[in-house]
Amino acid sequence: MDDKYRQLIEDMAAKLGVTAEHLWGVMVKQAPISGAVDLVICIAITVATVWWFRVVIRKTTRRSDDPDTYLSPRSEWNDEAAFLAWVSAIVSMAVTLIFISASAEGIVSAFVNPEYWALQKLLKC
């Protein structure tokens, strides 16, 4: 490890009243835990978004009685409510994709390379 990073870890450890080795070991052990929590949050947000998307589809379109036709435009909601529901579904899908994209690197590094994850967290402080 570079002397600059070693000095940073030693300074932080001194502020916390622990040794640098102890601080580093705790940070490395914390990496998979943090990665697992982030992964669970991503899964929960994805499940909620998919659920909302399916509700909007089900409430804004109905199957026609004729099996040869596609979905009919009859809706359980009025036009304004259906429009707002679709906007919210699209916005929630976009936010979910952005959140997962932003979290993906941290989740992977927490499991695959916990030392890198720990160093990144220490550099943010």
Distinctive features:
125 residues; 4 helices
Q: What is the subunit organization of this protein?
A: single chain
Q: Mean pLDDT, as a whole number? A: 84
Helix percentage range: over 70%
**Using DSSP, what is the number of strands?**
0
- The helix count comes to 4
**Main sheet attributes: strand count, strand direction, barrel closure:** none
Q: How widely separated are the two ends?
A: 18 Å
Query: Strand pairing plus helix content: what structural class?
Result: mainly alpha
The portion of residues forming beta strands comes to under 5%
Order of helical and strand elements: HHHH
Shape: rod-shaped
Radius of gyration from CA coordinates: 24 Å
Model regions low in confidence, pLDDT < 50 over at least 5 residues:
none
How many domain modules? 1
Describe this structure in words.
The protein has 125 residues and is mainly α. The chain has one domain (3-124). It has helices spanning 3-16, 20-60, 79-112, 114-124. The protein is rod-shaped. The two termini are 18 Å apart.
What's this, in brief?
This protein has 125 residues and is mainly alpha-helical. Helix content is 80%, strand content 0%.
Indicate the topology:
Blueprint: H1 3-16, H2 20-60, H3 79-112, H4 114-124
